[in-house]
Amino acid sequence: MKTSGLKRMPEAFILLISLLILLFTAAGTRIFRYGITEMRYFLVLLACWLLLITVYFLIAKKQNIKLIPISLSILTLLSIYGPQSAFSVSLYSQRRVLVETFKKNNAFKNGKLLQVDSTKIKKKEAGHAVATLNYLITKHDLSSLQPYFNEDLNKVSDSLASVKNNNNQRITNYQLRNDKLNWAKSRLGLNKFSGYYSEYDDDNAVAANIFTDYSFKVANDALTMVKGYDYVIDESITNDTLSYNMAGVSVEKMQPIKGVYSLNIDNSIFSFDIASQLDSLASPKALKSYTQVKINGQSNTYILPDNKLIFINETAKFKVMLNIKKLNFAKYDKKKWSINYISASYLIKKK
């Protein structure tokens, strides 16, 4: 079927040109500064496709609307397979960004990354390097950095994966990813620097922003005292909303929102705004009173008294305690605290 109503609306495509200029400008600003990631790749690909379609329907005398699904199918295949795919291009781009940062700080020789001088590198550049490492390890694994290390990174990964936690169980994927990042940071002299990464916000994935990062834990993080309570529910930031029925009592563990953890018990909400407590828990004065320990070369972990990480909320019918064992959190751009990881339990008592 040739020709369509699209041909009779050239003004719509003319208006698209100005919007496409804005789109290319916005995407280009991020790419030239921080490199290509998968999300930016698809954004630019979509922008190029829209430009192609716009030009086609503006200048072609004979138009065929089949061009839209055909071109989309071709671009989809090209973006998934081959050296021009989103995965390959983002890997190449982020490795190039990392190498350029190390070259700028005289820490790249014979194709290998060297330790940077932590007293001379700018904090913004160091944060950018850490964020890029985090992106590469999260999206492409530690082995993606093999060309720049003398060590066998597959063996390093196997060694880190063999470590067990306090319960003599294999560590989680989140912990393993964090251990790989800490190993790379230690190896490259970036221990005292942090970068921001969130797998749900690509624009911040490799941004060169610094954030304050801490980990809190209690001394006996494998032990939970349940005396005086009827039920225990585990809390983890990775869990979705879950529902339970406990002896006729309906309980819904809700997805945490901005550091607020909540239970819905028989339509009564028990909320714990942990993020709002972190200003006092992580104040300079408070940090000095805790025992500071070094884990995987990082010295930002503190052991707190049990009562500092216990929060209670109650009504006439129920008493709920949120008992935190481990907590990792950060403050990004001096804004509100953001919780990256939590290991905790809800203890519920029916009065």
Low-confidence stretches: 1-7, 196-210
Percent in helix = 25-40%
Radius of gyration: 25 Å
**Care to count the β-strands?**
13
Beta-strand content bin: 15-25%
Largest sheet: 7 strands, mixed
The secondary structure category is alpha+beta
Q: What is the mean pLDDT? A: 82
Task: Give the overall shape, derived from the CA principal axes.
Answer: globular
Q: What distance lies between the first and last C-alpha atoms, to the nearest angstrom?
A: 72 Å
Number of domains: 3
Number of helices: 9
Order of helices and strands: HHHHEEHHHEEEEEEHHEEEEE
Structure notes:
By secondary structure, the chain is α+β, with helices and mostly antiparallel strands. It has 3 domains: 5-80; 98-209, no CATH class; 216-350, no CATH class. Helix content is 39%, strand content 25%. The termini are far apart. Mean pLDDT is 82; it is low at 1-7 and 196-210.
Task: Summarize the topology.
Layout: H1 10-34, H2 38-59, H3 67-80, H4 86-104, E1 108-109, E2 112-113, H5 123-140, H6 153-161, H7 173-187, E3 211-218, E4 231-236, E5 242-246, E6 249-253, E7 260-265, E8 268-273, H8 274-281, H9 284-289, E9 291-295, E10 298-304, E11 310-314, E12 318-332, E13 337-350
Parallel strand pairs: 3-10
Antiparallel strand pairs: 1-2, 3-12, 4-13, 5-6, 6-7, 7-8, 9-10, 11-12, 12-13
Helix pairs in contact: 1-2, 2-3, 2-4, 4-5, 5-7
Provide the descriptors you would attach to this structure in a database record:
3 domains; globular; disordered N terminus; 351 residues; alpha+beta; 4-stranded antiparallel beta sheet
